[in-house]
Known about the structure:
The protein has helices spanning 10-21, 57-71, 140-150, 189-200, 288-299, and strands spanning 29-34, 43-50, 84-90, 99-100, 116-118, 124-126, 157-163, 170-171, 181-185, 260-263, 266-272, 305-309, 314-317, 323-329, 338-343, 346-347, 355-358, 366-375, 390-399, 403-409, 415-420, 427-432, 439-444, 450-454, 465-470.
Amino acid sequence: MKKGFQVNFPWRVVLLIMWLAARPAPAATFSTIVTNGPATNRLNLVFFSEGYTNGQMGQFLIDATNAANAFLSAEPYAEYSNYFNVFAVATNSAHAGSTHLTYYPFVTNYTCFNSTYEAPDDLLITIPPNTADANNLDGQGKINALMQIYLPSTNNDLSALLVNDPVEGGSDGGSSDYGKTAIASIAGISVFLIHESGHTLGGLGDEYTEANPGFPNVEEPNTTTNTTFTNIQWKAWISTNTPLPTETTNSTYEYTVGLFQGAHYNTTGWYRPFYDCGMNHYGVGFCPVCQEALVLAIYGKARPMDSRSPATNSLNTASSQMLSFSLNLLQPATHNLNVQWLTNSLAVGGATNPVFNIWPAQLGNGTNKIEADVWDATGMVRTDAKNLLKQTNVWTLNLTLLQIDSLTWLTNGSFTFRVTGTVTNGVAIQVSTNLVQWTAVQTNYFKRGKIFYTNSGAAALPKRFYRAEVLP
């Protein structure tokens, strides 16, 4: 949505600021709409009410729920819907609706976040700091303060302001606070909210061609001035037979990623990746390049590993019992994440499940490393320069295993062997006929780092297995 236009209604601005200065901080009610896991590892979409009176709080929750459903139905959010929590913060306003500064009859509504429909038309809704009120604490600062109250330990939030007004409009927060809050009126929830989230979450640029004098000439993930293939940010999406620039009048390339002229508020000299996209027209889905940017943004806030076991990455053991490692993964909606386990930097064949078991004897005494690599091989991303789609966890495992050696055969089929190690606890010699059920046949303490065991009557006994275990 366009930003930065000026409007001059000084008498209305003065009245509005005077009223805001005398206004106490609003009470708020926090509600959960969708929960998919811990807020510390989810992208937390938080809806704030604007222009809802005290008697309209129930309607706000309905509107926020509808907005959440619309948002999570759009790609790429639908594929990564499990990565989102959705909350609602209800704050009542003195008046229903928002302030309109553009067309007669002008309306000044006293609302919680001081939202304003600005020039040049009634499509741009901003909150302070904006052209109507420069005080950040009246708008975005108030949202930031409420976020600290209700989600104080997270830095992976996406705030959205639902404006209870029948006139379509929205923005990404205002010219002075770019990228903070997606704003949408209830008349345009399904289109404005999704478009504005492209700005606030993905850092995407508008692909409009209408002039916007003074708008910064900074390239975004979906806008560029480059026409040389190697310098185009989304070159991984462009086929070698696609002409650059790409003809906008040729239907052959309508659904092809290329270099289409007209973007960033310019008809010439600036280019977009797709013939049409949600960053160009409301109600159109995001193009592949914009979807890629949004998937990367999601992974910048929520990691594919929800948790791991063991929870600590530094382990010590003297036991020969099987070791088990596991991952709790944050899976996309229709495809699974990839997993590969490694021991001491070597990939283990077939170890591609979230659970990995290994016998300590397969590793040996000393320092070992167990590594779990998880990555998303989604086709929505072709360039991941920051490696956001991959996460690795490494456990350092210090093994001090008991060793059985010096086997010596005696008369009548009997034998003796030695157990060595560095443990200070007692040691049990255990026997089994099936490797499942074990019975202790001797317990003792090391003397100078070793103990001996001698069996009896072995010639008449069935085959047996022996092991040494450290006592608790």
